[in-house]
Q: What sequence folds into this?
């Protein structure tokens, strides 16, 4: 069982990474990273080696002024997650878990049913599948925040189920593709920080992810 401090740290990490992944890069988020000296203030939870490498890359990127950095980040973000053309790192889970690489496949439906069963609301920017890794990190962060309030293990158990059944089966491959395909140290660093967060929770909570065939 995670203590309150660890829960708070993991919750904060999940929330920041949700914003870094799901939304286009912005002056606001870059400013927040710089203002809070992200490399020094980032919580010391998660897998140490990936966290250290990720923060070093993020710190390197943030040395560039916004007028230079933002256009590079927007180009990288578009190629990784939006298109047009083939995406470097598809951010939705279903194409990894469906032999025809379909969006809105059975795994998307399973995650939607999971959210409905637990009364979880997932807010999307547009009509898109809800199994976006950024949205899943947002749900994870919300569940950890709820555990901080309730302190009864119930939201944490739901978070464990989310990780084991819906996110961890494909997140390693996503992070691998994101790290290899990113052209900026910023998004390379974000990929490593996601891996650090998820690997840390896997170890801390002793989770054995579902072993599913990947097609991506």
A:
């Amino acid at each position: 069982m995670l203590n309150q401090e660890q829960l708070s740290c993991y919750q904060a990490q999940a929330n920041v990474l949700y914003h870094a992944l799901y939304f286009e890069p912005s002056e606001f988020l870059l400013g927040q990273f710089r203002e809070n000296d992200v490399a020094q203030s980032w919580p010391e939870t998660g897998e140490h080696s990936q966290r250290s490498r990720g923060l070093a890359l993020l710190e390197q990127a943030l040395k560039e002024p916004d007028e230079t950095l933002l256009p590079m980040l927007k180009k990288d973000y578009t190629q990784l997650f939006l298109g047009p053309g083939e995406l470097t790192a598809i951010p939705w889970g279903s194409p990894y878990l469906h032999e025809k690489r379909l969006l809105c496949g059975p795994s998307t439906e399973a995650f939607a049913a999971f959210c409905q069963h637990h009364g979880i609301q997932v807010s999307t920017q547009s009509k898109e599948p809800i199994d976006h890794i950024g949205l899943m990190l947002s749900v994870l962060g919300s569940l950890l925040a709820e555990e901080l309030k309730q302190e009864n293990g119930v939201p944490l158990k739901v978070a464990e189920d989310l990780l084991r059944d819906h996110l961890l089966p494909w997140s390693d491959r996503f992070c691998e593709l994101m790290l290899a395909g990113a052209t900026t140290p910023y998004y390379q660093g974000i990929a490593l920080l996601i891996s650090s967060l998820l690997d840390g929770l896997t170890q801390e909570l002793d989770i054995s992810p579902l072993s599913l065939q990947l097609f991506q």
Observations:
- DSSP finds ten helices and no strands in the chain.
- The CA atoms of residues 118 and 201 lie 21 Å apart.
